[in-house]
Amino acid sequence: KAGVTQTPRYLIKTRGQQVTLSCSPISGHRSVSWYQQTPGQGLQFLFEYFSETQRNKGNFPGRFSGRQFSNSRSEMNVSTLELGDSALYLCASSLGVGETQYFGPGTRLLVL
Amino acid sequence: EDQVTQSPEALRLQEGESSSLNCSYTVSGLRGLFWYRQDPGKGPEFLFTLYSAGEEKEKERLKATLTKKESFLHITAPKPEDSATYLCAVQARGSSNTGKLIFGQGTTLQVKP
Question: Inter-chain contact B98–A55, Cβ cutoff 8 Å?
Fold first, then answer.
């Protein structure tokens, strides 16, 4: 069974630009969550989606947004990028809300 | 506030030298506690889920245990390939049905041959 896939794997952007990251969950999984990982803050929760509905949102500014499609694939968008947005963005999928989450390889974003 | 604390931050072991990693948590009702392993530049790899105090799970050289306030990841006779960062996370049983994971900072394990 294929795991969680994320594209692109690496991105370099400049301040002020926007970026869209994509996540394809494990087949059959309907819940997708996003996390930001930085050396200083560790892994922090961004959002959670189930059946195209946002179930929960972490403590991040409104520049961070996301959505989920009918096939459970998910995207997250960051507008007006700041240097501090440089991080590894991880997507995780699960069968349902509260089930074990399986992580993808992440997208490494560098903001210059 | 829900919180997870892992100790030690870093651990160096000789191959074959057993040890334990600690994960202390405070949460408003525990739905589940999760252990992950993360190699550099990769996403976390799922290891175990524990749901209630007294529960134990094993996989090869790893054994996870859970009490009402903490979890331990015991590593028996580790090998160099066990070198990684081990992450602990909890899910809270709140009023809203959410799978949000709250992570600790991780323990970076290095096993020398």
Answer: yes
Compute the distance between CA of residue A72 and CA of residue B38 in angstroms, rounded to an integer: 25
Instruction: Report the percent of chain A where pLDDT is more than 90.
Output: 96
Instruction: Please state, in angstroms and rounded to a whole number, the distance separating the CA atoms of residues A72 and A24.
Output: 7
User: Could you tell me the CA-to-CA distances from B95 to A47, B29, B92 in Å, in that order?
Assistant: 17, 10, 9
Chain-wide mean pLDDT for chain A?
96
Query: Which residues of chain B have a CB within 8 Å of the CB of A42?
Result: 103-106
3-class SS of residue B111: strand
Binary contact (A48, B99; C-beta < 8 A): yes
Please give the distance of CA B68 from its chain centroid, rounded to a whole number. Answer: 15
Per-residue pLDDT tens for B46-90? 999 999 999 999 999 999 999 999 999 999 999 999 999 999 999
SS3 of chain A: CCCCEEECCEEEECCCCCEEEEEECCCCCCEEEEEEEECCCEEEEEEEEECCEEEEECCCCCCEEEEECCCCCEEEEECCCCHHHCEEEEEEEECCCCCCCEECCCEEEEEC
Q: Structure tokens of A75?
A: 């995207």
